[in-house]
Amino acid sequence: MSPSASEIDDEAALWAVRIDARGLDGVEDPELQAWLAGDHRRAGALLRAQAAISFLDRGRALAGSVPAVEGRGPSRRALIAAGGAAAAMVGGVGLWTLRPRRLDTGLGEIRRVPLADGSMVAINTSSALEVDIKARARDIVLKQGEAWFQVAKDAKRPFVVSAGPVRVRAVGTAFSVRRSERGDPRVDVMVTEGVVEAWVEGVDAPPHRLSAGDMIVLASAAPTPVTESPSEIERSLAWRNGEISLDGESLEEAARLFNRYNSRQIVIQDPDLAKERFVGLFQTNAPESFAAAVAATLGADVDTDARTIRIGRARAS
Amino acid sequence: MTQSRAEIIAFVGGRILPHEADVRAWLLRSGGSPADVDDVIQETYCRLAALENTAHIINGRGYFFRMARNISIEKIRRARIVRIDCITEIDALNVVDDEPSPERVVASRRELHRVRRMIEDLPERCRQIFTLRRIHGLSQKEIAARLGVTENVVETQAARGLRLILRALSEATAQDHSVSDKTHEPFRKRDR
Question: Which chain A residues contact residue B49 at CB under 8 A?
């Protein structure tokens, strides 16, 4: 019987480590040559193992960089910094903290804002929040849209996000909350780190406990189960980097995603085209480049004006 | 022009490997068995290993998906009995390429979190050696001296750590898949 994929992977890992440690030249070492020649799959497995090492090293390089704080301009950023400094001096009970702070984003805008307690919030397009950091509580109201919170640990001040009747409570963790108003109102909660509790006000049921990688949809109607899907969550939160990550979505669904961010709306004119599915990674603010890629792939026509990008069947010529 | 082996490894590490989880999940959803998926992924890396140059690959993610799709179709054609929906599922998916810019660093930054967690999940000895080598850049000899063990032990543990990480890269998705069956994804299935 030929060796299984995982046996080959195990051997490849050892070779990759040896090459890395000894600076071995893969082409010159006779023992390695013999191993590679024994099975054509080994070259691929070795490449994958070496790529994993290179990937881990990339991780180190990236880890050093601090994510940029995106704001509307230096004045606002300076204001936030000043606010933080003031909070540090007054020790969290300063008068200024009594006033809830309003944060909002326009169409296509994505902001990262540090909060006075050391937490960080990333706010997606067309969203509105009210932030109230008090001595004994941290209350956030998501009035509209979507936000991801990286919560600073502080057991004495629970961090509670309200979205309609839904409440999400955390101590030191990271999670996102999204309100959808169209159709049935619903609130999606996705946890990226730690544990949170989520519940619906006025519903007599114990709170749902969610850990990293869990997501739940809370509607005012029927209860829904917690599902575990870390990769789905990472993909759904690609907006934090200004990206839309497509993984088999239909063109119709993809258009809806882009339309969330742009005043220039994608319109699909052919119902069959609308069902085509796509994989790809795009920038939220570049619907034109998405449409061009779609057109090239499907041989469709794109018609662009100031307000719309129409994707339709190619006209017979 | 031929690229150096190191350049190809860096390309695969930065632009291909980070998308492996997604490609595996997609292949599973398209009806492949876990063993089929392993084969397709392995074949993909084999073909990458045979490349002399990767400069023509503009979008790593798109390239990975397209290659996996082509290999799946070849496999299906070679097989005697084929599930019809297997072909249509794979065929129905369009892989689109964006311009080179958006991918990059950002994608790997998203992966960084996952990699960190993988390292943290390693058994203690493994994790220690892995961190000293990969994060602090110590040589195998220095690590051996610091921990008071032989270089051989360091090498064995480092290989064990890498094995576990390689396995985690392929297993994380199998989990996601079993769960995603329960979640509702109405837009994924297209009815014709």
Answer: 43-44, 46-47
